[in-house]
């Protein structure tokens, strides 16, 4: 479940439903095991052949982790705080949309629960800009319907704000 190419640096962020046993096996130079009831947010950070993670890479990974956790509990304000005001989302079959459309769509999903994983496959910081290639798996559970499994890649561009924090600026989401 927690595998990573040793030539990359990575964190695997996982949200699991209550009662799940979470286990990580030997990865790179680290070994971890987490077990317990309830919903766990597990961040496993490892140093791989490419060297230690930079502060900017860690901050971006924490942004993704915070996004996943906030999405799990329906905390739309936290998710919105992780976006630039001029963010643009691109998803198949829709015109690109911004922060207000994202807010409206999220408010229409208040009775929907989600559990998922985020596996950053690539991250590159270029000064005040960065991109991440991420693989996401989601279980979407409508209040009155059948759970739906969604998975796929995202390619996201982030911009460092004047306060030094990273924010999502552009997002191409291929999760289907």
Account of the 3D structure:
With 176 residues, this protein is of the alpha+beta class. The chain has a domain at 53-173: Nuclear Transport Factor 2, Chain: A. 19% of the residues lie in helices and 42% in strands. It is built from 3 helices and 9 strands. It has helices spanning 55-73, 76-81, 99-107; strands at residues 10-16, 22-23, 33-34, 40-46, 83-90, 113-126, 129-141, 148-160, 166-173. The strands form 2 sheets. It has a 7-stranded mixed β-sheet with strand order 4-1-6-7-8-9-5. Strands 2-3 form a two-stranded antiparallel sheet. It is globular, with a radius of gyration of 16 Å.
Describe the structure concisely for a colleague.
The protein is α+β, with helices and mostly antiparallel strands. The chain is 19% helix and 42% strand.
Annotated CATH topology of one domain:
Nuclear Transport Factor 2, Chain: A
Number of helices: 3
N-to-C order of helices and strands: EEEEHHEHEEEE
Cα end-to-end separation: 20 Å
Mean pLDDT: 80
Strand content range = 35-45%
Instruction: State the share of residues found in helices, binned by percent.
Output: 10-25%
List keywords for this structure.
176 residues, alpha+beta, Nuclear Transport Factor 2, Chain: A, 3 helices, 9 strands
How would the blueprint of this fold be written?
Elements: E1 10-16, E2 22-23, E3 33-34, E4 40-46, H1 55-73, H2 76-81, E5 83-90, H3 99-107, E6 113-126, E7 129-141, E8 148-160, E9 166-173
